[in-house]
Design goal:
With 101 residues, the protein is mostly helical. It has a domain of 52 residues. 54% of the residues lie in helices and 4% in strands. It has a two-stranded antiparallel sheet with strand order 1-2. A hairpin with an 8-residue loop joins strand 1 and strand 2. Helix 3 runs antiparallel to helix 4. It starts with a strand and ends with a helix. The mean pLDDT is 85.
Length: 101
């Protein structure tokens, strides 16, 4: 067998005869990391659970009501656009709170 080369995966100090060590090959070419439960929860699909759809709908309706109020009362401007954008972000984060927790 030839010289053993270091695995080409970032931060891997295993020795490998091929491009990646077996541990990194099994993990798609990356050294397995310590699992962070918060990251795992944030980046997985959360299927709707019973009662969540009603919560999403209530938040969405109130956000839409406020969006129309802003649209009616505020002059067209960068600030109005930002207000609508931040309202969309607020709705998204509120819904994510329901989905992830």
């Amino acid at each position: 067998m030839g010289n053993k080369n270091k695995c080409f995966s970032p931060n891997c100090d295993n020795q490998a005869e091929t491009e990646f060590c077996p541990e990194c090959l099994a993990n798609g070419g990356f050294k397995p990391r310590k699992v962070n439960p918060q990251i795992e929860n944030s980046f997985k699909y959360h299927a709707p659970k019973e009662g969540q759809s009603e919560k999403y709908k209530a938040i969405n309706e109130k956000a839409k009501e406020l969006a129309y109020l802003i649209d009616d009362l505020c002059p067209n401007s960068r600030e109005k656009s930002l207000a609508i954008t931040h309202l969309q972000e607020t709705k998204m984060w509120a819904n994510a709170s329901i989905a992830c927790n």
